[in-house]
Specification:
By secondary structure, the protein is of the alpha+beta class. It has 10 helices and 10 strands. The chain folds into 2 domains: 100 residues, no CATH class; 115 residues, no CATH class. A 5-stranded antiparallel beta sheet has the order 1-2-4-5-3, with helices on both faces. It has a 5-stranded antiparallel beta sheet with strand order 6-7-9-10-8, sandwiched between helices. Pfam families: GerA.
Length: 298
């Protein structure tokens, strides 16, 4: 695929990283209290406190699975609370970086007074997104009428239901110093070239950028030659096209909040393809691609 060298951090950047000290839990809570959508509940006479951002958290999980249990019983430890609340993937931690990341994305934080620096993080992320609809750009007369949406979990679901294989592998990264966007690298293990996966993953990890809001940001940052008229990534809004590319040994990249995916590496021939080509007899699809190619050349 592409050659790539890991960027060395300058001495100035290293000095800045060392000087940036982690905020304490108290300072983090105080900074959030400036926002009116940050909610604080005190239970049992300040013995137990619940924090969450109401615009990011699912109120149903809070009111059905968390508050009733905390109101009815008295707990001496966060592990005891964890055993009674019927929610998966809860975490007890003192890591302020992890706490800040999870709370800002919708987790509920539970704190006991006698263990002030240790909290329980309860997944309660509100997954508000539009429904899956028909493709608007890559409309196809034949084939599926589904397109990606802005929710990365929904998009991965659209791929997995078309490829229910244990070899389908998803690696997740957090990219963007400010946005901390979820980015998924998707490939079919045993089919893809491992070097391509390693190169894509390394390039994504090396991104030092404040915001990654859309996958188009990624193409501009990790592209080999931004002056080339031929893109190295194929941008598509169709799950069936991504699945076809994965079967061919390509790597897919998805960004949470982007209603489309990138596949790479790509070839010039692929750029003249259309969604309908996958559902036509091979000789007709070949003729149509040649017609498009000749139309561009001549």
């Amino acid at each position: 695929m592409w050659k790539w060298k890991r960027k060395e951090k300058s001495s100035t950047e290293q000095t800045q990283q060392k000087s940036n000290q982690k905020k304490s839990l108290t300072e983090f809570i105080q900074s959030l209290q400036k926002s009116e959508d940050f909610i604080r509940y005190s239970l049992g006479g300040e013995e137990c406190t619940v924090y969450y951002i109401k615009t990011m958290s699912d109120s149903k999980i809070l009111n059905r699975s968390v508050l009733p249990i905390l109101n009815d019983e008295t707990f001496q430890s966060l592990e005891g609370i964890k055993q009674h609340i019927p929610v998966e993937n809860m975490t007890v931690t003192e890591d302020i970086t992890l706490i800040q990341e999870k709370v800002m994305f919708g987790y509920i934080m539970v704190q006991l007074h006698h263990s002030a620096q240790e909290v329980l993080l309860i997944p309660a992320v509100s997954l508000e997104s539009r429904s899956v609809s028909i493709p608007e750009v890559e409309f196809s007369v034949v084939g599926p009428k589904e397109a990606f949406v802005e929710n990365i979990n929904t998009n991965i679901n659209l791929i997995r239901k078309r490829m229910p294989l244990p070899q389908l592998t998803i690696k997740e990264l957090k990219i963007g110093k400010v946005t901390k966007s979820r980015v998924a690298v998707i490939f079919l293990d045993g089919v893809v070239d491992p070097e391509n996966v390693e190169t894509v993953t390394q390039r994504l990890k090396d991104i030092e950028y404040d915001q990654i809001i859309d996958s188009s940001f990624i193409t501009q940052i990790i592209d080999d030659n931004s002056n080339s008229p031929f893109p190295q990534f194929l941008d598509t809004e169709r799950p069936d096209r991504v699945v076809s590319n994965l079967i061919e040994g390509k790597v897919a990249i998805m960004v949470d909040g982007a209603p489309h995916a990138l596949t790479c590496p790509t070839t010039v021939v692929e750029l003249f393809g259309a969604s309908d080509d996958y559902f036509l007899p091979w000789h007709l699809a070949t003729v149509f691609r040649l017609i498009r190619l000749f139309a561009v050349i001549f």
